[in-house]
Amino acid sequence: MLGITCLLALLLGSNAQAQSNAIDDPFAGVEEMIVTGGSTAALLAPSNTSAVAFDTADLEGYGVEDLSDIAAYVPNLEIRSVNATNASFFVRGVGLQDFGANASSSVPIFQDGVPRNPSATQLVGLFDIGGLTVLKGPQGSGNYRNASAGAFLIKTQQPEPEFSGYAKVSLFQIVSVDARDAPRYDFETAVGAPVFSDWISARISARYSHENGFWENGCANRSPIDTRVAQAGGQFVPDVSICGENLQPGDISQVKPFANRWIGEVDDYGIRGQLRFNPPDIPLDLVLRGEISRLNRDSTAGQHLGTSYGGKFLYVGGGDRTGYRDPNNTARLGELTESLARERPDLYPTARFDPFVEGNVARALSRRRDRVRYGRLQKELLKRPLDEQPYFGQLDRPGRILLDTNIASMTALVDLDEFDVEVEAGYIDYRKSEGRDSDLSPNRLFPSFSRDNAWEAYGSFELSGEAIGDVPLVWSTGAYGMIEQVESKNEQFILDDFRIAEFQQEIYSFGVFAQGEYEFLEAFTLEAGIRYNWERKDFELYTERQSTLEPPPGVPPYPIIPVRSRNQRSWDAFTGFGSIRYDFTEQVSMSLKYARGFKAGHFNPSKASTARVPNVGFVDPESIDAFEWRLEFAGWADRVSGNANFFFYNYRNYQVFRLTTDATGVNRQIQNARQARNLGAELEVNILPLEGYVPEMIEGLRIKLLGGWLRTQFVEFTNAEQRLSEGIGIGTTIDYSGNPLISAPDLQFTGTFIWPIVLDRFGTFTPQYDFTWSDDTPFDPNRGRGEVDRQGNNRWSPYLVGNRAFTLHNVRLTWEPPGDTGISVAGFCRNLTDERYLTFAVDISTFNDQILNFVADPRTCGGEARFTW
């Protein structure tokens, strides 16, 4: 490896020297250069950290609206979402797939230096952004609390002492064969101006977006409940089922009255105001910010994929616990059955094998010949998504989400002679309510309604300088502190029970850090840092359970079963990093780095009766030892530049989110995998292939290629759960050791091609094309094979609960008139080929004979106009 590095250094160095002889250096003889403007994102990343940075132009060109859109352009970054407010972030295969109110990500999000720790605020709506950086790897020093996998750094545009601003309008719509062509629009604007002379300035930014519903609900109706039953002969009989719910004689359809046909409506707005004080004779730069936002939208809908047993064989496309089948799944199963029957009528007579009758399936699968041919049917079903109408379903109670968020923050920079002082502080609070048809069916199986709120207060300060006495040591030291309180209440029907779960959690956290960088030889630089981490969590959980069944005559009402528990735990650890860098030339350098990461423990909010049981009610903190080799290079007169990284991670007590099953239902739990490992590589190459070789009007072609490779593994991850057998929970040992980590595809590639073409009086046309290819991705710790059976055996093929490899294509064409008009007009299509892939999936077939799939948005096309002044 070292020999390859040295050879590359010599080649790039000689190439750069040859180019410098052929092309005059416009900066020859300049001893010092001060760079202003341009990409602010690149300035956000610590020098010792692998990072991918986006400036304002990048974000606009990619059509990024919130953080979930970034994943398509950063290899080894996965962002999973099951609703519109909470997401899970994975960097290099490492993250926490939890969507609960008290979830604590191992990839924290910092906006203007303040962490957005409350999980409901982390799908940040991005507007008027100056830069965004994705840090990769554990952040062992600095104020990066819990950043054991990486971090997001978001920098908003700051006020400047001049009149400036922009206004942008985007009009687009879904263009898909599977979904309604629903229109969408987005308005965004910002205005900056001096307030007093040139040392007090202000900036106001705002955004509003609206999306019409595109997901069709087969349970839409205009029928009040009291009109749905008819009386015949003194007996109540069920009216005609509205949308396939399971009704018994005398039952009344409980599908929500006046339900809308189209689901997916969104109203989202945000307003930010900033005030900046920068006195000319005082070394102070102070920025005060306030931001409010509201999200009002339909809850996320998804696919209902039933699973059933035929004898002792499990198959997809069947019915759930109530016997309900999604009509599209039923049709697809019938089509495949008929197709195979036409191919081999001697082996597949449809008259004898009707897949819609459970008894027939059981009898057919009892014969070896039929098991073989039914295996063929299953292979066909699993080749592509079973549901041929992924944006259609039957929901009896489609829900709504309302989220209000308020943020206040400040940043103060004091430039003193010997050192600089930076102080950051912020306050965040939110209130959220959400109703969900969690079972994605027309029956009332386990719908839920939740309310949660949280507030966070955060502060940090940092001292930094470029020397200590006469020693040229770049150094910084500081501390941070955070207090957070989360309250949540969830009400849910689970089959014949009504359950309430309430919890309150308080977090007290602080850290002290120091780091330095020293160039001890002309080409060698040593960098190291350390941080002490301390955190305490106070957790109180109350659960209540009551049967909804009517007791037999003479039997008193079923009792309410309340359980309350309290727990408190504290954790602390030292983390840090050390790196050494060698500069072969001014354009080629290599570094080696070791980092130690830490993430505090967690409380599970599902069952108060197990709140004090290790690895059930709570989990231990995770720690990581990370080793990384990094090469940075540039050559061909800087027409080619980039970096390469190789890394190895060793995790202890890695925190893994699971939906566990027992006799009472499905529970959300985070568990510790005793050991996990991660090996990978990344490559980024930026190319300007035409610069200096063609006329100036067409030489601006820019190519950016990124790739990522991962090999992840649970080295030791074994736990015990329950599986239902005739209504009784039976203990089952589950061993995930040897399986890959969640949301960790082996390979990913992205590419962006941008080519500004200057046509004088016709203006500038800039076509852009970008693509993303992602390998097979599991959404569970069982290689996407879902839950095991009572004997611990796998029941599904790999990646059924996950994504098979897919490619996304996006195109954009921007036109700017000649001169400095500040006007630009663009047209675009995202997901050009209308690719189908999942944002999340979960197997709950051990409880309700079903898999839940959540499908990403289809193709959208439209245009936008922007005016900048």
Explain what you see.
There is one protein chain. By secondary structure, the protein is mainly beta. The protein folds into two domains: 2-21 and 36-212 and 277-290 and 412-868, Maltoporin, Chain A (Beta Barrel); 304-383, no CATH class. 8% of the residues lie in helices and 51% in strands. It has a 22-stranded antiparallel beta barrel. Strands 1-7-8-5-6 form a five-stranded mixed beta sheet. A hairpin with a 7-residue loop joins strand 23 (448-465) and strand 24 (473-494). Mean pLDDT is 84; it is low at 1-45 and 350-371.
Q: Output the CATH homologous superfamily of the largest domain.
A: TonB-dependent receptor, beta-barrel domain
Low-confidence stretches: 1-45, 350-371
Percentage beta strand: over 45%
What is the number of helical segments per DSSP (H or I, 4+ residues)?
A: 6
What is the CATH topology classification name of the largest domain? Maltoporin, Chain A
Span between termini: 51 Å
Mean pLDDT over the full residue set? 84
The percent range for helix content is: under 10%
The CATH architecture of the largest domain can be given as: Beta Barrel
Number of domains: 2
* Main sheet characteristics: 22 strands, antiparallel, barrel
CATH class of the largest domain: Mainly Beta
Strand tally = 46
Shape: globular
Would you tell me the structural class of the helices and strands? mainly beta
